[in-house]
């Protein structure tokens, strides 16, 4: 099911509009005022702590609601059914969720499972003809990511990645200021992303489920942030790995990696990804005329921001509420977000992660082709 | 002339004290209360803007005073003679300053000339039997630095490098906190040092006089800062260069370099050196129990500082006044500074700079042996 979105995007690039069975009135559809009776009906896959956070935030969403669940744990399903008033017919497990194809009460599936499972699950959701929202990282390498993009494209469903910061007010204001030239020529970006990870037995420290270490989970914020803050795609990467606890951080699970991204324009980014320290979460964008700092930059908020003109500190809206509102508008109305959150964009982060791991391995610069 | 300092340092390391012609009373000499009639008498070599700043600051020094000048510009000498009440006999030019050997009104020469001149000038001052204070970088490569250390050692004179931050109150308090374990195990340091350089015709952009680019002049703050903030010597370095203006920044003059320093303990430092942007000058030290941030970190002050316990922001004392007071105590009384500022220490920064340039050239990690 090709959505209205494709049509509107083509309009935006100046192509001649063609009506596909809906009236011209629909072209005047205001994205801020969708029909009140239509919400994006989302089934959450994987009922861990982040899924709980998303579902709670969706209670305040005007455009999306929890309509189904997919879980391997019957007791969790029972709990969620009560909390979100979900009928039996909208509850699935990992064995039978392909049947969601025939469920007309579910529009999209939000995959919130361990990283290494995203690829296979996304392919099954796409095959069932439902839109896919997938937590970051969308997969554990670019090859998987590419297959997901192709599968969703082929099935005619959206693939959106859970980059909640791309809808955050301070972040968007800074991007807007950059586009208006308020920082002059951009020269430098710094992203310090990390935290001290606790429980050594969690899936994030299991290379088979996590597909990597801190880079997959938290370093990706610095990668992603570099791209949307700089507003240009990097052309090379260098990276250095340090491991102080090889028991906790097994082979294939990176603890701390510093990495640098270079750009055609001469911008350079210097980033940190780590599972072994707190007091981080800082973005710093520097140009010839001014700077912007986000600190914290990507936590659950409030995000705090400062520029050469003074503090911004725009009002906090629960990120997951805002994300689901915006993703519903993208899927239901073809709204084009300020910063893309689609699979093709998420794939670029995976290409950079692949290159970071390769640079660590070979000890030299790796060129990027995004 | 071997100074009293060597003797006291030996005492400090537990060697048996031997009196070299002075009475045991002198061992009780309090470094905070030197004889009021004895000040370190300093001749300034190179009367540019920084020399003016140093000389003005020395007006408030209790332990050092401007007693002579060495300059190639007669009009500058005339001006300084008036301003600092300097007799004719204490004024030299670059041709005749070796005669300072016979001047018993000069104890030390402070070299504040272009980087590439330091080496030759230091060797001549040492040969004249005067203590040497030399601006950073002490020389333009480690080979030169090593020769300077050896020359001063042979001549029995002190060689101190103008690292004014090593006497700054906020910096020293953070070092003290680190030594007391207040940040836990140190994990990460970040030093962002740079500014947008102006006049394209200044000596700092002439490779023959500067011996390099931003790294020599401002990047060295991040290098030096990494070492005193982390409190450990790095064992490897990686570096990446970016040049956006090859007209202004000629061959041999680095514009922007990102570099990383690794430590035996697993600490990693991520630094920036640049001549093409402002809004920098930030140090960030991160450990398992807390952090420290200096912002600005190395400007002329006031330095502003924050830790996980709150803001420090200790009172500002003009850095150059404090530096000259402390250096006078080191030379006259053998005081041991909290952080070393001697030539052997300065030489380590040059070894790191050599390795940074090498890493840029070869595109891979360079091991350090400090």
Automatic annotation (TrEMBL), chains A, B:
Query: A Pfam family matched by this chain, by name?
Result: GFO_IDH_MocA_C3
- Tell me the protein's name: Gfo/Idh/MocA family protein
Instruction: Report keywords, A-Z.
Output: Oxidoreductase
Identify its protein family. Answer: Belongs to the Gfo/Idh/MocA family.
Task: Name the domain of life.
Answer: Bacteria
- Claim: Oxidoreductase is one of the keywords in the record: yes
Every copy of the GFO/IDH/MocA-like oxidoreductase domain together lies at 173-292
Q: Which InterPro entries match?
A: Gfo/Idh/MocA-like_OxRdtase_N (IPR000683), Gfo/Idh/MocA_domain (IPR050984), GFO_IDH_MocA-like_dom (IPR055170), Glc-Fru_OxRdtase_bac (IPR008354), NAD(P)-bd_dom_sf (IPR036291)
Q: Which residues form the Gfo/Idh/MocA-like oxidoreductase N-terminal domain?
A: 40-163
Q: Does the keyword Oxidoreductase apply?
A: yes
Q: What species is given as this protein's source?
A: Belliella marina
Q: What is the lineage of its organism?
A: Bacteria, Pseudomonadati, Bacteroidota, Cytophagia, Cytophagales
